[in-house]
Amino acid sequence: MDPAPTISTQGLTRRFGELVAVDGVDLRVSPGQFFGFLGPNGAGKSTTIKMLTGLLAPSSGRIEILGLDLQKNPVDVKRQIGVVPEGMALFGRLTGSEFLNFAGRMYGLNRETAAQRAAELLDFMQLADQPKKLVTDYSHGMQKKLAMAAAVIHGPKVLFLDEPFEGVDAIAAGTLKAMLQGMIARGATIFLTSHVLEIVERLCSHVAIIHQGRLVAQGSLEELRAGVAAQTPAVSGKVSGDGSGDGSRSPAERMTLEQIFLRTVGGERHAEQELSWLG
Q1: Which residue, among 7, 3, 2, 4, has the nearest Cα to 189 in the 3D structure?
Q2: Are the C-beta atoms of residues 108 and 79 closer than 8 Å to each other?
Q3: What would the pLDDT profile of 29-38 be if each residue is shown by its tens digit?
């Protein structure tokens, strides 16, 4: 018997006037999954995350997080989740330590625990060397790491990440990935959006794709590969995008997440277009 989902939506819809940004989305994310949520610009990814985290009310539909109805139990849900939103929402006139202590206290940690975890996180994120520096003077990458630290200071059971690696250097990205994989190993569930499909493919076990507000694919990477291959006869004559030409695996097994994504949202047609005046 499948375990109860950590994240579940039924008919999730959000309208802005005449625009239907998210249209009847049914999501299911199981406990302990590293779940990637993909889509082109304007597809409804950030709107969906804002609804899942209580930052935006849905026009209709139902959201359950950890078995709780988000609209009926918003505080109980928010105590158990962490969020790195699109705009990060940091307080620029605080130092990094002050901000993390504030975040910890808001999540209900006592003063001593909040201070201890703030110090550990600043050291882990390599932000401890300038303790008096204000957040507003941090680089974009430093602010991203601080936002991540604030999102995990209370040990959330579910972590929502909206483009967490944007503007982060390779060293910091490696640190963040190791931390996230450690959380998964300890049973947490992570819901990630990113335009960097290589990162999603390396980290995520399951993926959903949203296009023009509607969910067009959902499942494990293996299930998505098999589904796209079955619907695309031409794939049988193609070689994997890495150029290896490995004949020991089926064409479906050689498909990258980028190929799956482009075929699912129809992006291959645009990729094949050329501009005559560029070479």
Answers
A1: 7
A2: yes
A3: 999 999 999 9
